[in-house]
Design a protein that fits this description.
Layout lengths: L2 H81 L3 H84 L3 H13 L5 E3 L15 H9 L12 E3 L1
Parallel strand pairs: 1-2
Helix pairs in contact: 1-2
Amino acid sequence: MRDDVKQLLALQNTDQKIQALEAELVRIPQLQEAAKDRLANDTQALATAKSNFQANEIEIKNVELDVGTRKNTIDRLKNQQFETKKNDEYTKLGEEVVRYENEVDELETRELELMETADDLRSRITDAAQKLAMTQGLVDEEIAELQARLDDRKAGLTETNTTREDLVTQVDDEDLLDTYNRLYNKRESQAVVRVTSERSCTSCHVQVTPATYALAQSGAAIAYCDNCSAILFP
């Protein structure tokens, strides 16, 4: 293999490493945000459980107030019964007492239902709090690991960029370097590729001509794929 092709191949390997590191630097923060989203979901679940419990407690208080109001009304109506001397008014007040007593029964039944619901909602708060605590621990650990990986990739990228600068200085032919850079961007990181014994370019997978294959084998000059223009090595 020609020395200049070896240099370009080493440069390409470094560029591919840089590309992979840069992709990691984009992906890792996204993974951190996804982890935070999982925590946010569990935090919201706990907040919702607490809100539902509080709403249920308010409804219980309202029912208790309604019961108290009706019982006061019943006491007042009964006092009026004792004070009245008219039979029809006494009967009418009695009917009102019965109506309010029925409403009290309904409200007390509703209160019992709400108290049972409160027990279930209280249990949901406990479950949600436990799940949040577990998720918090896992997310904290995951974010810390991702941060360590992010710091490592940043250091690796700095080091690899320095390596690339050194490799670029080793390529004497600036036109060849420009050709490489153009091909690298155009051929999706495959500027310098192997040509197989079947004369197949491993970038575009098209057979090159026998003359191109012979040139790549001999190293007498830079060989380019007849189809995709990638720089070939045997």
